[in-house]
Amino acid sequence: MNAWKNYNETDIKALEGLCSEYMDFLSAGKTERECTTLIREIAEEAGYKNLDDTDMLKPGDRVYSVNMDKSIVLFNIGEDIVRDGLNIVGSHIDSPRLDIKQNPLYETEEMAYLNTHYYGGIKKYQWVTMPLALHGVVCKTDGSKIDIAIGEKEDEPVFFVSDLLIHLAAKQMEKAAVTVIEGENLDILVGSRPLEGEDKEAVKKFLLDYLDKEYGIEEDDFVSAEIEAVPAGRAREAGFDRSMILSYGQDDRSCSFASLKAVLDVDKPEVTSCAIFVDKEEIGSVGATGMLSRFFENAVLEVLERMRLDNGLNLARVLRGSRMLSADVNAAYDSLYAPAFELSNASVLGHGATVVKFKGARGKAGTNDANAEFLASLRDIWDRNGVVHQHTEGGKVDMGGGGTIAYMLANYGMQVVDCCVPILNMHAPWEAISKADLYEVFKAYRIFFKEAK
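Above: the chain sequence. Below: its structure as tokens.
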């Protein structure tokens, strides 16, 4: 069912308001650090307090916990957390990009570059010749921290990866798509002006002089920096009808934003609401800020301690008794690439929240396969509340596949299923979603927080 057909004037107004906020969120939060900061600020405005500053918790309290400025979890405490568990929506806030290496700056033939290492699964040829912005942080040995965001404002410079002109590219055009641009050739051109009075590496020296004067950054400081190159520019409406949103980073900030708005919309839930926003999903959810870390588990334990319920067994009871929507985008059907999809089981743009019983690859490898009983209970609450939703897969059986954080939470014994926004151009520098799908996913998460048990 096309969700747009259900909307009246009030629905359209609510949808457009949500999407306007969402585009601002996308444009301001282009890295996992920026998203964590935004989520924390928005949560604090809604009355959430830092868990570390809280001694006691009771039903109705709202708290958050931040992990290394790259992950954050929100709790809205319900009536009986041990008996009822948690209603969880879990998403990730990292996206594919180009990371600046530790020793990146070099000059060749009077042109200066930053050496990069791409992050996540990308088609490397998509990242050349487009305007890029630099976002991140530089940590100095004196303990100071310098935030970097260059290339987003109209009066700021942008950066780019060059490509070979078509007139000289006969041999390049014969290569397979996977090698037409090599990873080591994704270096970013950042300058070509020499420092006056210098003969050797004069362009590099000009840039180092500029960085020192403007930011107090020296060449050695790149070693303790995290700088990401991402597409420059704001999120935009797409289509003559403005029915879509085109932006960098919608995998998975579309689901993150929808879950954030949904959890903030819940007042004194019966079951404790929990929204998880984690890092490192695009490289396997590893490391201290990924879903495979103990961050979430430890945060739940901290909540139980402040409720005087940390008797050792209660943590296992809470996690086992919880329900979760794994919020990570799914591939939307694209008629230009129809052979990759099986239409009757494909996510269709504009048809609402997409529910994916299993993801993984080919023979369901590396996936959580949701229980039929859990799916039936979700169908019931969504149908009763008018949430438009579709039940899909990720593509044809033998075409490949991908994963989410679903199986990681399912390891605790809780009920988990993927529920998300369908997306076009997944992992490309610019991805597209339907406004209607974002709105229906928000509604699906909100009802889940309020009624799932």
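The chain has a mean pLDDT of 96.
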